[in-house]
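User: Before I run my own analysis I want an independent prediction to cross-check against. Here's the chain; please return only the structure tokens and, at the end, one sentence I can use as a sanity check.
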Amino acid sequence: MIDRIITSGTFSLDGGTWDVDNNIWLVGDAREVVVIDAAHDAAAIAERVGGRTVKAIVCTHAHNDHINAAGELAELTGAPIRLHPADQVLWEQHYGDAVSYEPVEDGEKIAVGGIALQVLHTPGHAPGAVCLYVPELSVLFSGDTLFKGGPGATGRSYSSFDMIIESIRERLLGLPPETVVHTGHGDSTSIGAEAPHLEEWITRGH
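Assistant: Structure tokens:
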């Protein structure tokens, strides 16, 4: 049901550029999939999809390293790109008005392969950041909101440490502790592994 592709490229914001490795997640079955965060290499993602139908290309947020293959992948597959509209300003920095997306809403359920990905709006790392919760699989796709070892970065434009902490506290840490957290970069973790460290993060962040 879940497959990971790791691609490499760059992340650029506020005049800086950094080398990054991104996790792209495919969720579905033998007939159809949802692609989460089309990063850097549309051809590699399309190859992994194979002959399956791509129901949607869901962007957890619109930092360029999470969306820079979405336009090409949408052309290759015919799938809609889904993004929370609060990230419009970041989307425009990369695509302008050349590529369009369909807004995703908090609480929406995206069906694929007999399961549903529940959209949780979790602003902080970016205004339109979302996580995708799949209770049937006990899995959360956290984008750059929650990592193994702490919250996502909030030191750049359009981000907020206080907001990401609130999002994690209110939207994520109440999920079952056995929930596996598949992140936008690096290794996976679990809600149970991260929840005890919230106050430590707050102290460290301030």
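Sanity check: The CA atoms of residues 131 and 192 lie 17 Å apart.
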